[in-house]
Design brief:
single chain, about 190 residues, alpha+beta, Alpha-Beta Plaits
């Protein structure tokens, strides 16, 4: 029988087998755990970078809103209050009075809540001279509130009358105006 102490190749092979066994049974399972931990760290780094980006954007917006607060407050004024549109109605009546147009508000259908940005539909019958009606429409569009004139139908209506020996036929322009006024978001 050969002496184990004298054979260095045999000792090296036994040592290599023991080392490989230790690596396979002790270190190899740790490698899977290390890989999983590294993956979790990568995901967390991505989330941290996303949070940092959001925080930076929030800080930029805060600085912007502080510097632009006057403009933002003025911009808020272009939206009508859909719950209490009294200021809106008063501004439309004032535009009609300045334009020398008689107006009549018509009831309109409520807005579908899933129809995007909230708005108030306004239907108006207006009577007066055609240039006055057009000035009224222009004043509505260029008024304080963000408004979209959807349609303006101008026609003539006549009234016949018998006044003694002569018959009188009077023609007056009338308009039907359909508009949409954008409203404030209600929370």
């Amino acid at each position: 029988m050969p002496n184990i102490n004298n054979n260095p190749v045999l000792i090296a092979m036994i040592f290599a087998a023991v080392a490989m066994g230790m690596i396979f049974f002790a270190v190899f399972p740790l490698a899977a755990d290390i890989k999983e931990a590294a993956s979790r760290i990568g995901v967390q780094r991505g989330e941290i970078a996303d949070y940092d980006f959001r925080i930076a954007n929030a800080r930029k917006f805060m600085l912007f809103s502080k510097s632009q607060s006057y403009g933002l407050e003025k911009a808020e004024g272009v939206f009508a209050d859909s719950r209490m549109p009294l200021d809106l109605i008063n501004s439309i009546e004032a535009a009609a009075e300045i334009s020398d147009v008689a107006i009549e508000f018509l009831p309109s259908l409520p807005q579908d809540p899933l129809d995007g940005w909230p708005f108030v539909k306004i239907e108006i019958n207006a009577s007066g001279a055609v240039p006055a009606i057009l000035r009224f429409v222009e004043r509505m569009e260029n008024g304080r509130y963000l408004m979209e004139i959807e349609s303006v139908d101008i026609g003539l209506s006549g009234v016949a009358g018998d006044f003694g020996l002569s018959k009188v036929f009077a023609v007056s322009p009338k308009a039907h105006i359909l508009s949409k006024v954008y409203a404030k978001l209600q929370y």
